[in-house]
Amino acid sequence: MLIFDEATSSLDSNTAEHFATTINQLKGKVGMFITHAMPKNLLVDEIVRIGQGSLSAVPAQAETTQMNTKKREAEAGAHG
């Protein structure tokens, strides 16, 4: 099992996407990503959201879109 804890948090968007492309090539491996901003091209089977004292499964596409929108908004605020 590969565990990545905030592996892309200090990367720019292009580098994070390159990282995700490389990880996607590790077919058949089990990985866990702990992140606030998942690269949009990272292929995942399942997303589990932790919050307010509970765990909940979330559709992967919906969660990825929401996380990346929040990251872009935060980056825009930091540069604006």
Number of helices: 2
Could you tell me the mean pLDDT? Answer: 79
| Radius of gyration, CA atoms, in whole angstroms | 13 Å
Our count of domains comes out at 1
Order of helices and strands: EHEEEH
Distance between the termini: 39 Å
Task: Estimate the global geometry from the Cα principal axes.
Answer: globular
Q: Which residues form runs of ≥5 with pLDDT under 50?
A: none
Number of strands: 4
What labels describe this entry?
2 helices; 4 strands; two-stranded antiparallel ribbon; about 80 residues; alpha+beta; about 20% strand; two-stranded parallel sheet
Can you characterise this structure?
- The chain is α+β, with helices and mostly antiparallel strands.
- Strand 3 and strand 4 form a beta hairpin.
- The radius of gyration is 13 Å and the shape is globular.
- It is built from two helices and four strands.
- Helix content is 40%, strand content 22%.
- It has one domain (2-79).
- The strands form two sheets. The chain has a two-stranded parallel ribbon with strand order 1-2. A two-stranded antiparallel ribbon has the order 3-4.
Give a concise summary.
With 80 residues, this protein is of the alpha+beta class. It has one domain (2-79).
SSE arrangement:
Layout: E1 2-5, H1 13-24, E2 31-34, E3 47-51, E4 54-58, H2 60-79
Parallel strand pairs: 1-2
Antiparallel strand pairs: 3-4
